[in-house]
Amino acid sequence: MAEPASGPAERAPGAAPAAARHVVFRAGGERFALPLEAVREVVVPQPPYARVPRAPAAVRGAMNLRGRVVAVVELAPLVGLPPDALGPGQGHLLVLDRDRRGLGVWVASVLGVEPLAPPREGAFEPGRLDRGVAEVRGAAVTVLDADVLEARAAALFRSA
């Protein structure tokens, strides 16, 4: 009788890496993706937001989500794109739950959950927000690093 494998299966040389599921969304007229495991939930924004004095334009404020304070940051200006023309209650919040801090990333729309192959080895540089570009249904999608995104958003609140 064969013994069960104790670790992850090794990939055969030259085999394509396994695809991981990502949340695909639009912000600033572009398509982006975050790994599904980084997104706790997707919600419709619930204004009013508590404003943060002297905060940069990307910081929309903070909101109460079922008794929990969630910082709301618009993705488009955070990545250097023009802000989306979103009014109260429009778009979606991707709620990241990282290190017990609630962060809501405000995006124009969520397109779905798609399997994306990981970036090629050597293509990723630590500290960069983008992990590379993937193709989903014939369209280019920029894959974001959730840790770097959260760090940049947190820095906005510290600078306010």
Automatic annotation (TrEMBL):
SMART domains reported for this sequence: CheW (SM00260)
Protein name: CheW-like domain-containing protein
Pfam family name, one: CheW
Source organism per UniProt: Anaeromyxobacter diazotrophicus
Sequence intervals crossing the membrane: none
Domain CheW-like: 19-155
Alphabetical list of Gene3D superfamilies matching this protein: CheA-289, Domain 4
GO CC annotation: cytosol
One GO process term, biological-process aspect: chemotaxis
Superkingdom, taxonomy of origin: Bacteria
